[in-house]
Amino acid sequence: MASERRLYALKAFDDTKAGVKGLVDAGVTAVPTIFHHPPESLDDAPTHPHGHQFSIPVIDLAGLVTPSGRASVVGAVKAAAETVGFFQVVNHGVPEAAMSGMLAALRSFNEEPAEAKRPYYSRDPGRRAKYESNFDLFQSRAASWRDTLFMEMAPEPPPPEEIPPACRRVAPEYVGLVQRLGRTLFELLSEGMGLRRGYLEEEQECLDGLSFAGHYYPACPEPHLTLGAARHSDPSFLTVLLQDAVGGLQVLVDDDKNQPAWVDVPTAAGALVVNIGDYLQLMSNDRFKSVEHRVVAKSVGPRVSVACFFRADASTRVLEPIVTDAGGARYRSTTVAELVRHYRAKGLDGVPNGPGCFSVFSAASAPSGSPPT
Ligand code: OGA
Ligand code: NI
């Protein structure tokens, strides 16, 4: 629970509608207290330099043109999905120009004068396009050093006039390309689960919803006190992340002694980062892993990234495990609406349930009281 003083400081920051970028523009040389993360969440595991022992695989989709190449790509995707939950793809069909254009547009929106961005700043859950700093500002224990342009792009994109002009043409174009890649990825994952190629798209409608989160992480004067994004797993089937060359994304993997360790996701020109989200872990009955990750704050910046979350968001959509082994369902069936309420209520790194949905929605725990709306 936020103390009254903290709540006052959060409100004052939010009321500027200028985000972390506004603080940096005003010349702050110290990170304000609302952004201080507790030491235990800053040093909750050792950080390993990127090394081949823990590396995030890079999968070349050029292999898909031949049947034998396809089989080895399916094997690589399956292996990554079952272990680190993260991989990068190259030759993925999204042109370099579309990627650099997207990052440049997002950067220029964030670097417009505060007055230009202010009309888009909102916490209204009904707004399909909005700019805000920390969607969980009032829920999380500590704010993070980032601002976000958030847009629900599918099933219906926002009306064009609700999208900031800098991104109005570029974002829908970029999202269309990511959806095409998404189709390929869901085919590969379906095959990796031993199901027919169209299963996740056609039966499970994994391509039907897409949320866009364009993040802007300003250079931070005291990066050791805060984070760019707190530790979390993603509320999605699958996430496709575009990042620039600054870096800072880390994944929590078990090291050779089975101890969790933070591993850097290297930046690779032209590559896209793909990770399994909570909905797919639940639906695959734990075969595929939705792995926790975070973004460290850096003294260099800004860093710009775009996360596209594939998520069904129809309130009637039910998620249930596909059971392919003798062990039975590990999760009860739940609605996407119920999952979304859970994420909103707890914030990114929220207590008491910790990151992700797995303890709450496990088959062993009772359904929560509130009926789906
Ligand atoms: C996210 C996320 C990482 C990044 O948006 O869920 O993990 O590098 N983003 O911005
Ligand atoms: Ni994430």
UniProtKB/TrEMBL annotation:
Pfam families: 2OG-FeII_Oxy, DIOX_N. Keywords: Iron, Metal-binding, Oxidoreductase. One of its GO terms (molecular function) is dioxygenase activity. Its cofactor is Fe cation. InterPro entries: DIOX_N, IPNS-like_FE2OG_OXY, IPNS-like_sf, Oxoglu/Fe-dep_dioxygenase_dom. Residues 206-312 form the Fe2OG dioxygenase domain. It comes from the Eukaryota. SUPFAM superfamilies: Clavaminate synthase-like. Belongs to the iron/ascorbate-dependent oxidoreductase family. This is Fe2OG dioxygenase domain-containing protein. It comes from Aegilops tauschii subsp. strangulata.
